[in-house]
Amino acid sequence: MRKVTTSSHWGTYDVLVGDDADAATIVGVAPRPGDPAAAPVMRNVPGAQNHKSRIHYPAVRRGWLEDGPGADQRRGRDEFVRVSWPRLTHLLAGELDRVRSRYGNEAIFGGSYGWGSAGRFHHPQSQLHRFLNCIGGYVGSVGTYSNAASTLTLPYLIGAAGGNDLRQRPVSWEAIAEHADLVVSFGGLRASNTWVTGGGRARQTAAPAMAAAARRGVRFVSVGPIRTDTDAALGAEWLALRPGTDVAVMLALLHVLITEDLCDTEFLERCTVGACQVRAYVLGETDAQPKTPDWAAGLADVPAEAIGALARRMAAGRTLVNTGWSLQRTQFGEQTVWAGLTLAAFLGQIGLPGVGFGHGYGSMGDYGGGSNALGLPVLRQGRNPVRRAIPVARIADALLHPGEPYPFLGQLDRYPHFRLAYWSGGNPFHHHQDLTRLQRALRQLDTLVVHETHWTQTARHADLVVPATTTLERDDIGAGQGDLTLRVMPKVVPPPGQARDEYVTFWEVADRLGVGAQFSEDRDVTGWLAHIYTEWQQRAGLDLPDFKEFWAAGELTLPGRQLPAGLLEAFRADPGAHPLATPSGKIELFSATVAGFGYPDCPGHAAWLEPEERLGAPRSARFPLHLIANQPKTRLHSQQDMGEHSQQSKVGGREPLCIHPRDAAARGIGEGDLVRVSNDVGSLLAGVRVTDSVRPGVVQLSTGAWFDPSAPEVATCVHGNPNALTRDRGSSSLAQGCTGQHVLVEITRHDGPPPPIRTYDPPVY
């Protein structure tokens, strides 16, 4: 047995490889020595690597092969036909040429949203977009399912550069530990979220850094409906509000600061615009509703006294206000980050060391954990001749309503008429909402092309299925933006069947379309790895090892870039000399630009807009439980759901649902029961975990269980994917972000025979 070190989006780890007479196989994994908090999700790797759901051969949907391109209700439930590589690439090149010749390149949607590889070269999205740019371009997407509502709003408030600093150069955990007295986190600080970083990390440092801050005396308050969203090691106080009421509580905290003269008026006058509009709104002068603690208590079901006491504590010491990304994945999600920034501004501590405002602590592993000074090697995608894009979470709308207008970032655009969608390295059946609606949408296409390693539901809905290699089956280079180690990712085992690198497929199709030399630049994989490394080395301008030395060494330590002691530190010190890229040059607590758009669902300042999916809202009379569809602790999104670590968390093979003892007893539900969760969108089956870690009225079901619609007479998904229930609409007219975090449901015990789980069974072809 040999040991090989590799990297992933959940960190660096060792792969244990057994060499038998026929082929190398993955027999185990182990944490890399010296990693203080290695992610246990690595245990999914061996079971997933050679799982029965791997795609071994090129395949074409039978209906598409026999009847040709076009909308087809059989898509997603049709048979597949195995074909040779030459035939698949011939069909793919011919269909791309047909679509671009007849309808133009705006009829091609270049999807590939996802986390397909931590490698710098075999990054599926970069490969696909480079290829499509070589043949005339494509319509892409704007934003991410993770945080579009906030990232598209923040530039109006603190400018694009300020928004980038908030994500890429936030206050470090070391500075928080040294300078902060109190961290108030709306949405918790889940350690399992910090295992995940785009490109991975050499060492998992976020959770240990949080714990170190707690040991140094920093106090934590976790505001949210799930106690375990903040690790017990932090000793956090839990303010267990109703989901979706964070903005109401923030406004009530502002009310206390204003009425008790606890605001930093000097900071507000010097560094912000719009404080007067916020004051008028909070005091009820504009709508006759003062945003008092009593008012918020009625919405959030927390004591008014607790809100007042927290506001005074925040003003009395050095405080960091953090909003997790989860909060903005809901209707009116823009308001959560806007209200959090406004609260921090009224405290007047933005720009001070270790405190102020954060948006993402506990959401990603590199947040507050360092930043390398050299950048990273990158595969250049080239220029896209098509200058159009849609909001990432509006793909189903675009497919179902081609040509119809939609509001977005102050403009009124129209959805393109897509004929072909191309996905590589992404799984919309994980990310998207209302999966039944997504199925209908995908059936409107002429052609869906999918590169995949496994038979996901996305692959099952494809017309042309391209079997791809996994990270362990190819050479690459890995590192994340916040990482200080560039790592070799060597090929560990051969691919199964006829699976091959996406790069080889794109090169062959590009060659058939007459742009092979433009796409490949006559380099094989090794040639490209050497090229992007050398290009990066020259750009860095430092005396670094050449590519051969780097590859032989296995890794390279990168110089770090010091994170600022405080967010917008230079701006705070001298707003005139270091203005923000906003119309005023200051923090815009009231944005005249946004107000000028006239959106009723996103006014010009932080405001309480009651979401439909909320306890106490009219819909809750029919669906009295609030389901939180948060990120899973046992896998990265839906990746390797069939792996050991993910499977061990299941209850009777279904995704676990956490419910409070009071709500379980009221429904005659016990630990380990199979339940049906439903609303007017859809239904699912899940296994029960009874726990007081969720507040009464709230249930929790993580995203990422592979969608299984194999028994529609029982449930929309018999495996437990919460997007069988979530409503497919944008966060607001401004950002059109994802709204899949919150949904109202009812739960009943399922007493009939449980249908088998078929989502991992590959189609016969």
Write the layout of secondary structure elements.
Layout: E1 2-8, E2 11-19, E3 24-31, H1 45-49, E4 59-61, H2 62-67, E5 80-82, H3 85-103, E6 108-110, H4 124-134, E7 140-142, H5 148-151, H6 154-168, H7 173-179, E8 182-186, H8 206-215, E9 219-223, E10 237-239, H9 246-259, H10 265-271, E11 272-273, H11 275-282, H12 293-300, H13 304-316, E12 319-323, H14 334-347, E13 356-358, E14 389-391, H15 395-400, E15 405-408, E16 411-414, E17 420-424, H16 428-431, H17 435-442, E18 447-452, H18 457-460, E19 464-467, E20 476-478, E21 485-489, H19 502-512, H20 516-520, H21 525-540, H22 547-553, E22 555-557, H23 569-573, E23 587-588, H24 592-597, E24 625-628, H25 644-648, E25 656-659, H26 661-666, E26 674-678, E27 683-690, E28 698-701, E29 742-749
Parallel strand pairs: 6-17, 7-14, 8-9, 8-12, 9-10, 11-23, 12-13, 17-18, 18-19, 24-28, 25-27
Antiparallel strand pairs: 1-2, 2-3, 4-5, 4-19, 15-16, 20-21, 21-22, 24-29, 25-28, 26-27, 26-29
Helix pairs in contact: 3-19, 4-19, 7-8, 9-12, 9-13, 9-14, 12-13
